[in-house]
Specification:
This protein has 530 residues and is an alpha/beta fold. It folds into 4 domains: 195 residues, GAF domain (Beta-Lactamase), CATH 3.30.450; 165 residues, P-loop containing nucleotide triphosphate hydrolases (Rossmann fold, 3-Layer(aba) Sandwich); 81 residues, Helicase, Ruva Protein, domain 3, CATH 1.10.8.60; 63 residues, Arc Repressor Mutant, subunit A (Orthogonal Bundle). Helix content is 49%, strand content 15%. It contains 22 helices and 17 strands. The strands form 5 sheets. A 6-stranded antiparallel beta sheet has the order 3-2-1-6-5-4. Helix 12 crosses helix 14 and helix 19 packs across helix 20. The longest helix is centred in the middle third of the chain and has 40 residues. It is elongated and about 105 Å long. The two termini are 71 Å apart.
Length: 530
């Protein structure tokens, strides 16, 4: 019986063959699959072997792209690259789309008489030109109950033929190569995802909070930290001198987080008396103490679902630190004078300009509380560390104060701007805004001149910010700041920084030594930001 099917199959192929030849073909297919490391080249060789075995001029493998819901020709024999590129189908479209949709093989004995055959690759026209009848045989490639693609051949013939045996044999070949096709599909999808991600990275604009002004390297590093931590629920501690804008950083984190539509509650812990801070934070019940005439909802309840910003956290009494620690650990509070436990979902952001580490040594700040709020510390640089931002900040304050105070100041002179750049700004951005506002009031011609600035900036004697007035001092300050900004931009790489500044590494080394710049600090900054 097997021999009879064997002979019938050989006659269908139109030549004398033996069982050994069929087995040899399957062995060749298996060897190609197991030995080849080039997946695309492997499929191309498979198509060559299939066409040779079936005496078919054309064969092709299509792959289903599950993300884009389309079917594409991945490898073929007898088709040009241009013809391959035209062979794209939707699931259910044409014969190939139908095979994918139904996971069933299909036989078209004459493609010229089949309306469902779309002839996207132009094979039907070639067959008509050659004066032959062209059959199309297509089988699904199935792996783990999923159709991953199709295998098909175009076979010319002159008489009506029964292609049942060819379909059976194509199914065997399809079963052998299905896994190979699946791997190829994954590679294609991974490459497409990488292409999309690369396009997104190239086209995406850097994250810059809309409530913060600054374009220096230090500020861009700060923006990256905000972008990283904002989507999480991690507790953040903002460190920095007074006046650097810690509250703006906290607000930027909240606005960039999933909690942006929920409340953002701000509390200055140093402004609340110790007797009232517990009531303000957690609320109190009616009659819980003298003067408590009504039930009071605390700030944590008001911030439920959102963010609470505890500024000057170093001024919180030890007794309150214990209760804040409970909220961080258990997400629960109790009002003053109450016994009911209230669940709260609040993200906590703290800020301080105090040395908490020294306070822990003096037992004025709890160590366990410190480690619980210091999960993700962010350091905000002082204005003197990012003097490159003074110009843009000045323009920002001029525009802002023009609107607030109904003024029409047009610009600031270069001399006045130079004086701003030389000053050390112990009060940071808050002091800069106050200086600009005073200068705008003093201006009489819509321009801020150097003589409109406060005497401390003109002489710099009372503030001890300039010890000698010389061109050398100004140039040294500018040079030092340029070297620092370049080192930050190049993550502490001295060779790259020297090349960018247009000097030799030897000169760079001498300047670093002259200005006592600790280059390892900028390498550490790069490591921490990564």
């Amino acid at each position: 019986m097997v021999l009879k099917i064997q002979v019938m199959f050989c006659k269908t192929r139109g030549r004398t063959c033996y069982l050994d030849a069929d087995v040899e073909f399957l062995v060749n297919i298996s060897n190609l699959i197991s030995r080849s490391e080039d997946i695309y080249g492997n499929l191309k060789l498979l198509m060559d072997e299939v066409c040779h075995f079936f005496n078919a001029p054309y064969s092709m493998i299509t792959i289903v792209d599950q993300h884009q819901d389309k079917i594409m020709i991945s490898a073929s024999h007898g088709l040009t690259k241009e013809e391959e590129s035209k062979g794209t189908y939707q699931v259910g479209e044409g014969i190939i789309g139908k095979v994918v949709e139904t996971s069933q093989p299909m036989i078209i004995t004459d493609i010229s008489k089949e309306k469902r055959f779309l002839d996207k690759t132009g094979i039907e026209k070639k067959a008509e030109a050659d004066g032959v009848v062209m059959a199309f045989l297509c089988v699904p490639l199935i792996l783990k109950n999923e159709t991953v693609g199709t295998l098909s051949i175009h076979k010319p013939h002159r008489n009506e033929m029964d292609f049942a045996n060819e379909i059976k044999f194509l199914n065997i070949v399809g079963a052998l190569i299905a896994k190979n096709v699946s791997i190829h599909r994954k590679h294609i999808e991974e490459l497409e995802e990488l292409r999309k991600e690369n396009f997104h990275l190239k086209s995406a604009k850097p994250f810059i909070p809309d409530n913060i002004v600054g374009n220096s390297s230090l500020m861009h590093d700060l923006y990256q930290l905000i972008e990283r931590v904002a989507p999480t629920n991690t507790t953040v501690m903002i460190r920095g001198e007074s006046g650097v804008g810690k509250e703006l950083i906290a607000e930027a984190i909240h606005k960039a987080s999933p909690r942006a539509s929920k409340p953002f509650i701000k509390i200055n812990c140093s402004a609340l008396p110790e007797t009232l801070i517990e009531s303000e934070l957690f609320g109190h019940e009616k009659g819980s103490f003298t003067g408590a005439g009504n039930t009071h909802t605390g700030r944590f309840e008001l911030a439920n679902g959102g963010t609470i910003f505890l500024d000057e956290i170093g001024d919180v009494p030890l007794s309150i630190q214990v209760k804040l620690l409970r909220i961080l650990q258990q997400k629960q509070i109790e009002r003053v004078g109450g016994t009911k436990t209230i669940d709260v979902d609040v993200r906590i952001i703290t800020a301080t300009n105090r040395n908490l580490e020294e306070m822990m040594k003096n037992n004025t700040f709890r160590e366990d509380f410190y480690f619980r709020i210091n999960v993700f510390p962010i350091y905000v640089p002082a204005l003197r560390e990012r003097k490159a931002d003074i110009t843009i900040l000045t323009d920002h304050f001029i525009n802002k104060l023009n609107k607030q105070n109904n003024m029409d100041i047009v610009r600031i002179t270069g001399g006045a701007l130079d004086m701003l750049m030389m000053y050390s700004w112990p009060g940071n951005i808050r002091e800069l805004e106050n200086v600009i506002e005073r200068a705008m009031i003093m201006s009489t011609d819509k321009v801020i001149h150097s003589y409109n600035l406060p005497p401390t900036l003109q002489t710099a004697v009372s503030s001890d910010t300039v010890r000698k007035s010389s061109l050398e001092l100004v140039l040294c300050k500018v040079e030092r700041q340029m070297i620092i900004d370049t080192l930050i931009a190049n993550h502490g790489n001295m060779a790259k920084s020297a090349l960018q500044l247009g000097i030799t590494e030897r000169i760079m080394g001498l300047r670093i030594k002259k200005y006592d710049i600790q280059i390892q600090d900028y390498k550490k900054l790069s490591y921490e930001s990564n």
